[in-house]
Amino acid sequence: MFTNSLKIMEDKPYFIKDNKPFFWLADTAWLIFANLTKEEAYIFLKNRADKGYNVIQAVLIYATEGMKDINKMPTKRYDCHKESYWQHVEEIIDMAKDLGLYMALVPTWGSLVKKDILNMDNLEEYINFLADRFGKKENVIWLIGGDIKAGPYVDLYNKMGRLFKEKNPDKLIGFHPFGRCSSSLWFKDADWLDFNMFQSGHRRYDQCQMGAWDDTSNQLSLFGEDNWRYVEFDHASSNRPTLDGEPSYEQILQGLHDDTQPYWQSREVRRYAYWSVFAGAAGHTYGDCSIIMFYDGSIDGVVYGAKDYWQKAMHHEGSGQMKHLKDLMESVDFTNGESRDDYLIEGQREKHDRIAVFASDDFLFAYNYLGKSYKLDTSAYIGKDIYYFNPATGIYSYIDKVKTDIYQYEQIPDYNGNTDTVLVIQ
């Protein structure tokens, strides 16, 4: 039975549900309401629920008629002014609940605010409508924003957040920001904000500043691929949970705009997940290029290099590998863990060489993307079991018990390109 008991822990930056730690594992299905039928939505939601996801991030109004030059992804449904559309939305939300899924709902994409379609004059009417219609749904989370830098619109989003909190005080509220930004840049003191979210984005280290339209001038948050830095950045300003709400999507062009560039693969998707979670994030959001828009080739739009129709992309391997991280975290009391670079005998390494260590008195996890050798201080774990854990398969491979104060991890031979490994001590 689904219960509406998702809350924030009082003393730690994590979620809790039914008095148990809740590990946020989401997928970005932005256009599920606009582009899928009810029957198609069930297929997708069932697939994700079976893979261990517990949150689906979706936008209620991505575009209105005449916005094709603004919102570029292919959009089938613009009839948000009709009751039939909102009945469609309601049926999908209820379907998600039956499958055990929360829906993190974005009221509108940020472009509607930029173009003054949603503004201070009509905001209250729209938010009251949403809060009244969906506020009693047990599986609703409000995720305002929608890929936008809030700076010029802080007053509007503060009003939106306060209205939702007044109308639906039992609902959690977050803010989905623009790429290479975090909600904490604008709302670190907002009393309506329950958790932070950052968008580490889709660029490589060397694409951090491309001179493209979507560059951000905020130097505070230009971390390249180091999405773990956003966790540190957010935790430095508050004790709220934080998570990467939009990392590089599986099978999307690196940098988004240039079709001569390679695609992000599942191994890189895993890296973003383990790096941020082992830095103390309260969960993670996965995404796939074809799934965000439910690409089927039927209408025109910018598709960021999407190659597969969504029915095929639904089975991309990265989507099934996120559950291994969730299962690993739920095998321990992860709310007692913290980042522990100090356990690395030779110190932390930079960029892809990073060894992400997350530990408590009872366990230690060390994620190694490139699989290179390193040394760990294991003096606090003598007698505990030690394993290799494969993030691509979820398989544990027993090594031995910890017998010495220093453990030397030796690189494992790799024959398939998946070099990443987690060393697990429990």
Outline the secondary-structure elements.
Blueprint lengths: L6 E2 L6 E3 L2 E3 L1 E5 L3 H4 L2 H13 L4 E7 L21 H16 L3 E7 L1 H5 L8 H12 L5 E9 L5 H14 L5 E5 L3 E2 L1 H4 L8 E4 L28 H10 L4 E3 L21 H12 L5 E4 L2 H5 L16 H4 L3 H14 L7 E2 L15 E5 L4 E5 L5 E4 L7 E5 L6 E6 L4 E4 L11 E5 L1
Parallel strand pairs: 4-5, 4-12, 5-6, 6-7, 7-8, 10-11
Antiparallel strand pairs: 1-2, 2-3, 9-10, 13-14, 14-15, 15-20, 16-19, 17-18, 17-20
Q: How would you describe what is shown here?
A:
The chain is α/β, with parallel strands linked by helices and 426 residues long. The chain folds into 2 domains: 7-333, TIM Barrel (Alpha-Beta Barrel), CATH 3.20.20; 337-425, Immunoglobulin-like. It contains 12 helices and 20 strands. The strands form 5 sheets. It has a 6-stranded parallel β-sheet with strand order 8-7-6-5-4-12. The chain has a 6-stranded antiparallel β-sheet with strand order 13-14-15-20-17-18, covered by helices on one side. Strand 7 (140-148), helix 6 (154-167) and strand 8 (173-177) form a beta-alpha-beta unit. Helix 2 packs parallel to helix 3 (83-98), helix 5 (123-134) packs parallel to helix 6 and helix 8 (228-237) runs parallel beside helix 9 (266-277). The protein starts with 6 loop residues before the first strand and ends with a strand.
